[in-house]
Amino acid sequence: MSNSDDASLTTVSTGNATSEEPAIDAVKPPDGPRKCFVLDTNVLLHNPSSLFKFAEHEVVVPLTVIEELDSFKKNNDETGRNARQAIRSLDELRARGRLLEGVEWNDQGGSVRIHPCDRSRPSSLDLDVADNRILGVVSEFHASGRPTTFISKDINARVKCDALGIPAEDFGADRVDAD
C-alpha cells in the first residue's frame, strides 16, 4: 500500500470472538453496525486497491478468494500483477493484526478481514464450486442481520445473490453505494 493511510492501520479488538471463530459482528464502530462489503475475486483482479474503497465500512474477503488470487499470481499480465498487489496489500494488513479478526486501515474505522468459507451456507449451493463457497460467506453475513452487500463483476454471481435475497452490486468506485 502506498497511500497515506498506511500509518494509521491498527488491530481491531474483538472482545466477543474466540481465536478459532470470530463473531461475524466482531468489528463495530462506536456508533453502531457498519455496512459489510464482501468482495469477489474478480473485483480484486480488476482493482487491487478495492480493499480500501469502502471508507468507514468493513470489507470481508472470503478465504476462497485468497485461494483464487494465489492461482492468478503467476500470470505475466495485468491480472497477475493485480493478484500480486492484492496479496501484498493483505500481507501488509496481516503484519498489523489478525486478518481473521479484522484490521483497521484508516482512522474512519474502515477494516478488512478474511473469513473462512466453512460455515453454514444455503443448502441449494454446490460447494464444489468456488463461487458458491464465496456466496456462502455472503449468505452467512447477511443472515446475521448485518447490512451486507456482495461486490462482484460477475453477473451470474449477482443474479444468484438476488435469488438468495442478498444485495449485490457491480464494482466501480463511482457506482458502489457505500452510504
Characterization of the model:
This protein is an alpha/beta fold and 179 residues long. It has a single domain (32-169), classed as 5'-nuclease (Rossmann fold). 31% of the residues lie in helices and 13% in strands. The chain contains 5 helices and 7 strands; from the N terminus they run ββαβααββαβαβ. The chain has a 7-stranded mixed beta sheet with strand order 1-4-5-3-2-6-7, with helices on both faces. Helix 2 runs antiparallel to helix 4. The longest helix has 17 residues, at 78-94.
Task: Give me the secondary-structure topology.
Layout: E1 10-11, E2 36-39, H1 41-46, E3 58-62, H2 63-72, H3 78-94, E4 103-104, E5 111-115, H4 130-143, E6 148-151, H5 155-163, E7 168-169
Parallel strand pairs: 2-3, 2-6, 3-5, 6-7
Antiparallel strand pairs: 1-4, 4-5
Helix pairs in contact: 2-3, 2-4
Concise synopsis of the structure shown:
With 179 residues, this protein is an alpha/beta fold. It has 5 helices and 7 strands.
* CA radius of gyration: 15 Å
What would the average pLDDT be, to the nearest integer?
Answer: 81
Q: Find the CATH topology.
A: Rossmann fold
Continuous helix count: 5
Strand content: 5-15%
Helix content: 25-40%
Total strand segments: 7
Quaternary state, please? Answer: single chain
Name of the level-1 CATH class: Alpha Beta
Structural class: alpha/beta
- Measure the end-to-end span: 24 Å
Strand numbers in spatial order across the main sheet: 1-4-5-3-2-6-7
Domain module tally: 1
Overall 3D shape = globular
Low-confidence stretches: 1-30
Give, in order, the helices and strands.
Answer: EEHEHHEEHEHE
Largest sheet: 7 strands, mixed
Question: What is the assigned CATH homologous superfamily?
Answer: 5'-nuclease
In CATH, the architecture is 3-Layer(aba) Sandwich
